[in-house]
Automatic annotation (TrEMBL), chain A:
It comes from the Bacteria. It comes from Streptacidiphilus pinicola. This is DUF3311 domain-containing protein. Signal peptide: none annotated. It holds the Pfam family DUF3311. The chain crosses the membrane at residues 12-37, 49-71. The keyword Transmembrane helix applies. The keyword 4Fe-4S does not apply.
From TrEMBL, chain B:
Keywords: Membrane, Transmembrane, Transmembrane helix, Transport. GO terms for cellular component: plasma membrane. This is Sodium:solute symporter. PROSITE patterns: NA_SOLUT_SYMP_3. One of its GO terms (molecular function) is transmembrane transporter activity. It is a multi-pass membrane protein.
Amino acid sequence: MSQSSPVKLPLVTPVRVVCAVLLVAPFVALLWVNSYATLTPAFIGIPFFYWYQLLWVVLSALMTGLAYVLFTREERQRKAQRVARGGEQA
Amino acid sequence: MKTDWTALTVFILFFALVTVLGFMAARWRRGGDAEHLDEWGLGGRSFGTVISWFLLGGDLYTAYTFIAVPALIYGVGAQGFYAVPYTIIAWPLVFLFLPRLWSVARSKGYVTLADFARGRYGSKSVAVAVALTGILATMPYIALQLVGIQAVLDTLHVGGSSSFGKDLPLLIAFAVLAAYTYSSGLRAPALIAFVKDTLVYVVVIVAIIYIPIRLGGYGHIFHDAAAAMAKTNPATGKPRGAMIPGAQAQWAYATLALGSAMALFMYPHSATGVMAAKNRLTVRRNLAIMPAYSLMLGLLSLLGFMAVSAGVGKGVKGYNSQLAVPQLFEQMFPSWFAGVAFAAIGIGALVPAAIMSIAAANLFTRNIYKDLIKPDATPAQETKVAKLVSLVVKLGALGFVLGIDKQFSINLQLLGGIWILQTFPAIVTGLFVRWFHRWALLVGWAAGMAYGTYEAYGVAAPGKPGSHFGGSSANIPAIGQIGYIGVTALVLNIVVAVVLTLVLKALKAPEGVDETTAADYTADADETPVSGDPEHGSDVIAPVTT
């Protein structure tokens, strides 16, 4: 069990900070309603308010996906590190 | 009004197909001990990425998606679009805590969120509070699914003119649903979800391309919608709606989106969908690919404006906006495809209704029956009780449908959302730290529930002064803006819990025993067997999909 392992890996890493930014960005963008509550510019006849939010569906999906890839890769490395340094399976 | 036989035949054929699938599901991927609640209530905790994706999508994007969101946009315009930011921010939010929830549930054999609350805080009363809230919030949500089926049946003009005859097709649909949920458990909706989501995607893609072509393009649709929204509603003396949220409405828009996103995975049926996943990677991978459904929801909601532009319900006094989308389909599509679209809505209601009743049954069985009534219940007895309760829950939902104003069924779900949000502090903070005192959580929960219900009671439906539960937004004290009641209640809940925790800690009140360890929150399927139940620990069932 990792909890009983004597090796402590840092809780905050650059990768984790990037992941946090990727995950927090949609909140800031979408909860700040005043930044996009406008009709223009329209796109193929769809007012800005609507297409902007639909665009964020795609952006947010890409960002969450990227966070997933980065985080999973780092977790795999940490696991390997724990095993190497602690000599115990995490 | 004439019954459209082609559409009705297609609808009935699809309905028959999923009924057969529902009963066949009992034999699908059957593993381990059939008597165990893990089998009936969590599909043996064996679902891989593909099944989980369909199951969660089928679970979370319900008839509510198809009927109520476009109906709200049809009714008031921009304000109804909050469902889009809601589903966008839901995924990054749950990305943070759901893998931990899955791990601790797997590690300790938890079936419900209330199981977790009991284990973490050593408190049956917190568990019962979470369980009761879950059951209470799920009832109107199941009712919403019934409203969805009803809207389709109304559009198809099936059912007699007497009040019993009118409800008969709905009763038949629900009897069938109840029967295969009873016999197959979570496997039934998991299998039917494949049909449901395929139909939904086909219908949505066709609708957003074909209908605008027939209506003269998106520019034309939004032009018509803007004109309709600007017209004064004689009942309220105000414009019908707006194309963008005005300065007065932006707090409500943002808090509705945030509150709904936070509430999403506090619902018992969402948690059930997650716990049924076979390993931690499946959970995380799913959260990364779930936003595909958000795109579908966003496109779907534009159907509300299309219905306005197509003149659906125009000039009908007291028009039921829940009928806007089915009638738009009826008006725009050839009969056979309208039948496919109706089947998508109908089946889209059955899948979540089944999962919700299973989740509510799991809650009752684990946290009320087993914890309070019969602590020595065997797994076989648990399964038996859960199956029976799944029937009772559905009957309760029927009561909701017959008893409450259907004009905005979305408000039913929002009232449930206000309640379920009050379990957020206990569950989500509990997944990371055990700082809160169990009694403080309980009092905070009670304060949030009471405040939320009281405020919602005071909201009159538009144009009906003196009516109650007409909406879910009210004045936020101290800020002076209109906002989602659920979020205000949650803030009150947290403040009460924090203050009381500090007081109780100072008084050294007994904290209760935490049965979880730090490692439980990161455990995965290949390293930790389910405690006390080794045959459920490893993946004895090979996945059929890869």
